[in-house]
Design a protein that fits this description.
The chain has two domains: about 160 residues, no CATH class; about 120 residues, no CATH class. It is about 35% helix and about 10% strand. It has eleven helices and ten strands. The strands form three sheets. A five-stranded mixed sheet has the order 6-7-8-9-10. The chain has a three-stranded parallel sheet with strand order 1-4-5, with helices on one face. It has a two-stranded antiparallel sheet with strand order 2-3. Helix 4 packs parallel to helix 6. The two termini are about 25 Å apart.
Length: about 325
Amino acid sequence: MYFYLPKSLHYCLPKSLHFILPFTPIRFQRIGNDDSFKTPTNFMPIELNTSCGVNTNESAVKELEELQLSSNFDYPKPTTLISALVSMVCKLDTNALVLDFFSGSATTAHAVMQLNAEDDGNRKFMMVQLPEETEESSEAFKAGYPNICEIGKERIRRAGKKIKQEIETANAQLKIGEEPKQVPDIGFKVFRTADTNIKWNLYDALGQLDTSAMTHTPDLADFTMGFNDIDVVYEVMLRQKDVPLSSTLETLTDIGSRTYLYGSAYLVCLETEITEELIDKLAALDPLPIKFVFRDSAFKDDINLKDETFRRLKNLIERNSGLEKKSYTVEFI
């Protein structure tokens, strides 16, 4: 996945995280415990060029050209360099999560996918980049990339497609007895920072009652203008603990057109009206979600139905959680 870091992301970052830092020049190096400094010789052993096949900045430009992407970067890094660093940092951890806070053209994402293709690893990447605008006179802008993030996203798409094609071509030429290689996961999700989609109360920033939210549709009463259900679901998930953004999201069409199951464990119901029939369907789900999230307004003025829904689903969750599973309950937004 590739995304602009959400403000609440620190709630869901895993404990085991590998960082690939930006390559800014190292100016000085402390000698021993005194106050003397000197210019360092090499940050990385020069042997890497031969032992790991690390290429140059020129080859990085060529990589972008091979993907038919115009370079908008003065010093792009070759994927071989990032691959070598990932291998050094992660060692034998082929399930590592690699985070790049200044992802630029997404070289790190490209390198991680390439490494997975080479050793059948299952590494994941997390790219963070401010949407720095490209100059109007640049080739990138003329090609339809208004900011660096768009270049990075397109590179991940094209690099993934290229890796997939190369593996499929190689598999088609296998000799008898040779095992075909698996195509690594080349999918990703994109997130950006934004204001909330949910109207948590009916008062604006000045403490004044927002009467427009009370006189329009239920959606305008609960959510901000221009919202969509998927954004709301992800915002709700960001407010949970230890929920990865890479999980699957599906619509439970047998229950309703706006009822979603996230990560096979969290159910977010955005239907505008909750009925006993709908609750019966939710209670019959197998396996049962560990948490249910409803719109408070969907219960209308039926306090008894809301209370019964909470008690019924809460008891079901606790009964199914056992002693070892996580036990959550029911929330309302």
